[in-house]
Automatic annotation (TrEMBL):
Main subcellular location: other
Record-linked Gene3D superfamilies: Periplasmic binding protein-like II (3.40.190.10)
Taxonomic classification: Bacteria, Bacillati, Actinomycetota, Actinomycetes, Kitasatosporales
Name of the protein in its database record: N-acetylglucosamine/diacetylchitobiose ABC transporter substrate-binding protein
One Pfam family linked to the record: SBP_bac_8
InterPro entries assigned to the protein according to its UniProt record, in alphabetical order: Bact_solute-bd_prot1, Chitin_NgcE, SBP, TAT_signal
Length: 482
């Protein structure tokens, strides 16, 4: 990822002036303990289809007459891109039945019984609020190693392996320990602070590159009856999409690595304290849209596209997901977190970008070769371009934008990646420890702080306790940056 640059201690005043207050509040969230049941069953029968013969056209040895069962998360990216790729599969294997396609937002609810019964689908887009815990699935050996797919020839250029056609970092994201690749992240997501350039133009403003400028702009907007920020209050684990790279920018990427590794006192790092206090200041100064803590991601995005708030932390799927309410002249953009002050260890432009929309092939899939072949088709230039045109997002395929006219949102994402260069961070909590990231850090920690029910110090103490408990929990598999 490249080295970080050091700075002098000039400008430390930003940390000194931020105050903290408010009482600690607690909320109750449902547990995800059923995931371990979902991922540990040994029931079911071995009725896998017989593997087919390998050839130049069929390098993975797909059984040409076997059925293929695909389940897609019907969220921000919809499902048409997958349906189109499935048609390509049926063209390649005309003797096979039409691909069985299921789209749902209830991944866990619908697939738990199938995992328990030993009859999971052949390919799953494991995404959304009901995403199955990747760390648990990998730890319980419920996923197929996708290395054969990675080593297979790519569809566009057989002289290249699939692994050589992926964007930087995508392959590594699918690895947990060592070389096996358990997950194929199909989308390439740029996380950050999203805004409307039109809204900023109306305030005669540019995106604030410093936190002082951010607060000044929020104050200016407030006087016009516009909130500075909103976020998915019911799912406050969206906040880290801009908060985590902010922490890395302040203290260096090693701070996030220590957090991912569940190291003792990782959350008590001064960079975390500074970042939390800065975000808490948004609440204290009244720059958060009223009612935000009770909003879903859709409600907060809709308030944002209607001009009720300037900024929202999100991922690049937001363009497609918010399309129904986005005005034509909105000029949606994304930017990296503002600088806190001159002592930040990483430069402005430091951003979080990584693979998104995780696809997995269950270890007990009946037609695992078919599941991998479907992914190989999706990682062709044709399917990649179709994905980008349909859902306004980059794919994991390193290319696929030539000849396409990009929206302002997509172009800003491409520009942000170019500006970041090596200063791209990729925190792993959300795929290593889903419960810790979403329920505990997100909802019970950061969410409570941003709603004013906990101070930064209280939120940090609470989150550190959650992380310590996860580190000691022998029922879950632990992962570390290699």
């Amino acid at each position: 990822m490249g080295s970080t640059s050091g700075h002098t201690n000039e400008g430390l005043g930003r940390r000194d002036v931020i105050k903290r207050s408010a009482a600690l509040g607690l909320i109750t969230v449902p547990t995800m303990s059923f995931l371990s049941a979902c991922a540990s069953s040994d029931s079911g029968t071995d009725d896998s289809v017989k593997k087919g013969k390998t050839s130049a056209k069929n390098p993975l040895g797909v059984n040409e007459t076997a059925a293929l069962d695909v389940v897609i998360f019907d969220g921000g990216f919809g499902q048409q891109y997958a349906i189109d790729a499935e048609k390509k599969y049926n063209e390649a294997f005309p003797k096979a039945p039409k691909v069985k396609h299921t789209a749902t937002q209830k991944i866990q609810s619908q697939l738990q019984p199938r995992f328990n019964g030993g009859t999971p689908p052949d390919l799953i887009d494991n995404s959304g609020a009901e995403q199955m815990d990747m760390g648990v699935l990998v730890g319980k050996k419920q996923l197929l190693d996708l290395t054969p797919l990675m080593d297979a020839p790519s569809i566009d250029d057989p002289s290249k392996k699939v692994r050589d056609t992926l964007r930087p970092g995508v392959l590594e994201m699918g690895q947990f320990d060592g070389d096996p690749v358990w997950i194929m992240y199909y989308a390439y997501t740029v996380y950050g602070v999203w805004y409307s350039q039109t809204a900023l133009d109306n305030l005669d403003a540019q995106y604030p590159e410093t936190w002082d400028d951010m607060l000044a702009l929020c104050e200016k907007a407030k006087k016009k009856g516009i909130a500075g920020w909103t976020y998915a209050g019911k799912y406050p684990y969206y906040l880290p999409f801009s908060l985590y790279p902010f922490i890395a920018k302040i203290g260096g990427r090693e701070v996030l690595d220590k957090i991912d590794n569940l190291e003792p006192n990782a959350w008590k790092d001064p960079a975390v304290k500074a970042a939390f206090e800065a975000y808490y200041e948004l609440y204290k100064k009244g720059y958060i849209l009223k009612g935000t803590p009770g909003m879903t991601h859709i409600q907060s995005q809709t308030a944002w596209t209607k001009g009720k708030a300037l900024f929202i932390p999100n991922g690049s799927w937001v363009e497609n997901e918010a399309a129904p309410t986005t005005p034509k002249d909105f000029k949606m953009m994304v930017a990296a977190p503002s600088s806190l002050d001159a002592s930040d260890k990483m430069p402005f432009g430091t951003i979080w970008a990584s693979g998104g929309e995780p696809f997995v092939v269950p270890a007990k899939a009946k037609n695992p070769e078919g599941g991998m072949e479907q992914l190989r088709i999706m990682l062709s230039e044709e399917s990649s371009k179709n994905f980008t045109k349909q859902v306004k997002s980059l794919s994991a395929f390193n290319g696929g934008t030539d000849g396409l006219t990009l929206s302002t949102a997509m172009q800003s994402g491409v520009d942000a990646l170019k500006k970041a260069g090596d200063n791209v961070v990729n925190p792993r909590l959300q795929d290593w420890y889903v419960k810790l990231q979403k329920e505990q850090i997100g909802v019970a920690g950061i969410g409570e702080m941003m709603a004013g029910r906990a101070t930064p110090a209280e939120a940090i103490q609470k989150i550190q306790a959650f992380a310590d408990a996860a580190a000691k929990d022998q029922s879950i598999k632990h992962y570390k940056h290699q």
